[in-house]
Amino acid sequence: MRILLYNPDNGVTRNFMPHLWMFLLQALTPPGHEVLLIDGNAKPMDEAQIAQFVRDQNIGLVGIGAMTRMVAKAYRMADAIRAAGVPVVMGGPHVTEEADEALGRDGGSRHADAVALGEADETWPQIVKDAVRGELKEIYAPVDGMGKERKPSLNPYPAIPWDKLDLRQFNLVPKLLHPLLKNFRENWGTFRIVPVESGRGCPYGCEFCTVTGFFGDSIRFRTNESVVNELLLLKARACKEGGQIAVFFIDDNFAINIKRTKSLLRDIIAAKAQVFWVAQISANLLRDEELVDLIAASGGKWIFIGMESVDPVNLKDVNKGFNKPGEYATVLERLAKRNIYAITSFIFGMDNDTPGVAERTLQQVRTWPPGLPIFGLLTPLPATPLYKRLEAAGRLTRPRHWKDFVPFTMAHTPLKMTIEEAHAELNYGWAHSYSPEALAQAVAALDDQHVGDRVNVFLARLCFRGIYFPMLRKSSWLRVIIENRRTILRLFKEGVFRWMRPRNSASQDSFDVATPNVSGEANA
Length: 524
Ligand code: B12
Ligand code: SF4
Prior knowledge:
With 524 residues, the protein is of the alpha/beta class. Helices cover 39% and strands 13% of the residues. It has a 6-stranded parallel β-sheet with strand order 2-1-3-4-5-6, sandwiched between helices. Helix 9 packs across helix 10 (258-270), helix 17 (436-444) runs antiparallel to helix 18 and helix 18 runs antiparallel to helix 20. It is globular and about 65 Å long. The structure holds cobalamin and iron/sulfur cluster. Iron/sulfur cluster (SF4) is lined by residues 202, 204-206, 209, 211-212, 252-253, 282, 306. Residues 202, 204-206, 209, 211-212, 252-253, 282, 306 line the site of iron/sulfur cluster.
């Protein structure tokens, strides 16, 4: 059978990183089937196009995965595929919580023939077998023989053949620059960000988050060896094609078990498996100097920190009191000292927020080493404790907000300001962090740093700007480049100057991860 796995586009960020679930389910498909992957972020399609595709390609089963914000598009695509006579199975966090909606059992129309609840690593092979026999069940739940929920172990973990997969659509180097950069001495013909998971689960249970409910509070890890082998495979691929690969460790909290994270990082270093990497780690776990040393030595470049608010009352309200705003600056300085930068994520519209919250937040952000601040609105995702609390209090203004998804729009009334005021705060946060002046200041704040680090921060800021001010068209990129021409010119001059220096002294400019001077054993 030919199977299509499809991920709808998010309408914002195009193809910055593939979705792991598709590659994972492809690797877990029983032999004898051909699995095609389409990520709508890389290959945008509408309903007519996908229906045509499944007919032309003789597809026998389509699997669709989606977050809540993309589910309306996912349903439209599923409807078109089913109308073309091909069965659809849906999975992922949204339909796990809203299976009745996907199956039309809530009085609405039906979008999926079957729904895979929760983690589908173990149910997917059965789904494929049932689809071949034309006997798809409506619900596939990961349960043991006694009918009790069962979380799949990550040991063993399927080998994803990253060395053989076609990743052309995920090259972040603009086509125009390929010929130029291919011959550049630092191998920049391609640049890809690849998702890798080393573990699943987070026990913290923040009120707005799906993760603790979905993955459970039992944390599971892959073996160090399996993660290291995956990195080596990716590194070899990058080397072979004269490009760069960075890894996004998509674990919800990469250092949730510090001892184990240190042991993994030491093994990465010992195996010389370093690539540049990004990971999500909560601020409380970054107090450990040795951990941060190992992060730096193993290739860690950007750490995503869910700071959420600079107000401890807000943090306590959403069960995230373990975040201590008083220590944010110290944590970020600890990272910056090792040339590691932070993606600091904030939520506006929390219950203790009042007008002016964005400026109060930015006043603090400006005192920190430059990183990438990002801003969102408190969003009641289905089945989260936040959703239940707001529903019980009658505060949901759009209880099924995903049916008519509008980016950056609240679905409930905050306590101490209006919805419109919350939207204005969000706008203020983005506008004042990503204006040409703010970008120039971020680069200037790193004047004593290597030009490579400043280019890194600048490019990352340009890309992150696109989350709020989508830059899907060439013309919007061009406008941003013109607006930031002074900063670009400055970095360019400096880069050329360093590049023209003799190779020995220029070798530090390499974006390749240098062999660290931290031993694989310990780092006191
Ligand atoms: C990586 C990631 C991202 C990446 C996404 C890009 C990418 N290419 O991956 C980035 C950083 C951009 C991102 C952003 C956001 N994210 Co995010 N993200 C994640 C994260 C950390 C990992 C996803 C992942 O790969 N997991 C590992 C795989 C194996 O798990 P999985 O995708 O769930 O797939 C398993 C099952 O769900 C199932 N499955 C999934 N799909 C399908 C399909 C079929 C057919 C079948 C059978 C089974 C199946 O089988 C898989 C194997 O068991 C998750 C949290 C998490 N741990 O999953 C949050 C998560 C998915 N994100 C979430 C959110 C809310 C967001 C944002 C909206 C945050 C924000 N406020 O801005 C943005 C929106 C992005 C956008 N523009 O659309 C929520 C989604 C909740 C929901 N109900 O939708 C999650 C669950 C985290 C949370 N805090 O609750 N995210
Ligand atoms: S620490 Fe992060 S992943 Fe864990 S529950 Fe809180 S928001 Fe979710």
